[in-house]
Design goal:
By secondary structure, this protein is mainly beta. 8% of the residues lie in helices and 55% in strands. The strands form 7 sheets. A 13-stranded antiparallel beta sheet has the order 17-18-19-20-21-22-23-24-25-26-27-28-29. A 5-stranded mixed beta sheet has the order 10-15-16-13-14. The termini are far apart.
């Protein structure tokens, strides 16, 4: 008995000493130049242990033992700072940490802002670059996760990887419509003509070299979809004989995934290649609020996979041909099940293929390419409404294809002129099939696009002043449109009166100018002013489909 009392007394004493010896390190992390608080900055004090700053840039490390700590402070786009702190018994240390922006970002060569190679500091526009180093430090499941670290971008993905789609917008334009922000992979547009959407899930994050974000209207160079800006995702180009990465991950909700990326350029060979793929599945969780749940509410779950490859050939130092192909398929359960085996879900089967030719010849820089994208989209609705069972399958076949070419030339030390053309076509063939009634709603349509553009970059005052003047002409034409109802039941008979089996052809034209002037005082300070006009033609979903929408009813213009 005495031994037990003695043991308890010793343990209590040691525990009390340990509690009393605990200290605190806290403080604030700010931008060294602007003084603004940095939200989400990382503070690491032991291997694998750390915290992030809150919305005010504050952090706190608690329950620390007496000793010496090597603290590492880091944030995307800033230089890392390391501080050594000696913490005494029951001591509280307060730190004011200032991080300096990475200077090398101003020397980054970008192409998105002007379609020509320029150092970032020489582009009279707001450009952000996510470099390889930054992308490596960002914990991301999909590439849109990384875009949340770019100021002025709004990412809408409410349920993380369990969201069936994500929307990325900028400049305060509609946060629910991707059609106002152009997304490209290696300069090739991936917005679908049907609704302007982008399937962010199919992009393998391990295959990305960097991301360039040009903010503000860019229609003078890129036409429709570029009202808010342009996001250009640039993939990796192999430089080693063989390199690669294989990873497995496991997370909450029994989420299991794997990625593979292999690339190579054989020694003394002009060929280069890569193969990439990923697969992921998870049990998911209930996304509905408790008040919205019904006896049919289920977890939102997922299964998805993607595989792709790239093959290139360097004809010479300044000339190459590159081709790539990607395939993606998924199943996203959306959280409700009545009678059907899989309940409510969406599925997207997507094929992407493109090829490009690039050459620098004397003073000329020439680029040409073509692309094709096909998506078979399905959305199954299995639900109860007013004690009535509904089983509907939306089947939509979407396709986009096009070609482009542009050439640039420098005239002395003053002018750099670029001119180009684009042709594109997008089509949709869709049906809403009601299996619990006789209804079938069909909509079809095609959009053709053509464009010509030109731009001049003018350097003055010993290259301190730069003027960019550009103009683009766009044509968009809608044809072969129809909206029909087959065997309407009472519930959908109202749509019967909005049928347009042979829609009138429509067309739009637009001139999109741009004028930017910049004066660069030095490598750290510049002043610029820019004017640009945006252009966005109607998407196919607006042109060939009437129906209920959130907050109202969308009605086609009848002939």
């Amino acid at each position: 008995m005495r031994f037990k009392v003695l043991l308890i007394t010793i343990i209590s004493f040691l525990f009390t000493v340990n509690i009393q010896a605990q200290g605190v390190i806290k403080g604030k992390i700010t931008d060294a130049q602007s003084g603004e608080s940095l939200t989400g900055a990382n503070v690491v004090y032991l291997k694998g242990k750390g915290v992030t700053t809150d919305s005010k840039g504050d952090f706190m490390l608690q329950n620390l033992n007496t000793g010496t700590y090597k603290l590492e402070f880091s944030f995307v786009g800033y230089q890392t700072v390391v501080k050594t702190i000696v913490l005494g018994k029951n001591q509280t240390k307060i730190l004011d940490v200032q991080l300096n922006p990475l200077k090398f970002l101003t020397d980054e060569v970008v192409i998105t802002g002007t379609r020509t190679e320029n150092q970032l500091k020489n582009v009279p526009n707001r450009i952000n670059v996510l470099t390889p180093r930054q992308l490596k430090s960002i914990p991301m499941q999909t590439i849109d996760d990384a875009l949340e670290y770019v100021s002025g971008i709004n990412v809408n993905r409410p349920f993380g990887i369990y969201s069936s789609k994500a929307t990325v917008t900028m400049r305060g334009l509609s946060g629910k419509e991707q059609a106002r922000t152009l997304v490209m992979i290696d300069g090739i547009p991936v917005n679908k003509t049907d609704g302007g959407t982008v399937n962010w899930n199919l992009i393998n994050a391990d295959n990305i070299e960097r991301v360039e974000v040009a903010k503000g209207p860019a229609s003078s160079l890129y036409g429709g979809n570029a009202m808010g800006g342009v996001i250009n995702i640039i993939t990796k180009k192999p430089v080693e004989p063989l390199s690669g990465k294989i990873s497995l991950d496991y997370g909450t909700y029994n989420t299991l995934g794997g990625k593979i990326f292999l690339a190579g350029r054989p020694k003394d060979s002009k060929f280069f290649w890569n193969l990439n793929g990923f697969a992921r599945q998870g049990d998911g969780y209930i996304t509905q609020a408790p008040i919205d749940r019904t006896p049919y509410t289920r977890k939102s779950n997922l299964k998805e996979m993607s595989v792709g490859g790239k093959l290139g050939y360097d004809i010479s130092k300044d000339q190459n041909i590159i081709a790539s192909i990607n395939y993606y398929n998924d199943y996203h359960g959306t959280g409700e099940k009545v009678y059907q085996k899989n309940g409510n879900y969406t599925s997207q089967e997507t094929w992407q293929a493109n090829a490009a030719y690039n050459v620098k010849l004397n003073e000329y820089d020439f680029h040409a390419g073509l692309f094709y994208q096909k998506e078979n989209y399905s959305k199954v609705s299995d639900y109860m409404s007013d004690n009535r069972y509904n089983y509907v399958d939306v089947l939509s076949k979407r396709s986009d294809m096009g070609l482009f070419a542009n050439a640039s030339r420098k005239f002395g030390e003053i002018h750099n002129v670029i001119a180009g053309m684009e042709l594109k076509q997008g089509a949709v063939d869709a049906s809403d099939v009601y299996y619990t009634s006789t209804d079938k709603v069909n909509n079809d349509g095609t959009m053709d696009f053509a464009a010509l553009y030109a731009q001049d970059e003018i350097l003055l005052l010993k290259q301190k002043m730069k003027i960019v003047a550009g103009l683009r002409y766009d044509y968009a034409g809608f044809h072969d449109g129809k909206f029909t109802i087959e065997d309407p039941s009472y519930a959908l008979k109202y749509l019967y009166y909005y049928q347009v089996p042979d829609m009138k052809d429509e067309s739009w034209t637009a001139l999109s100018p741009k004028l930017s002037v910049q004066y660069r005082f030095n490598d750290s300070y510049r002043l610029y002013i820019s004017y640009a006009k945006g252009f966005r033609p109607s998407v196919l979903d607006d042109m060939c489909r009437s129906g209920k929408i959130s907050g109202g009813f969308k009605l086609l213009i009848l002939p």
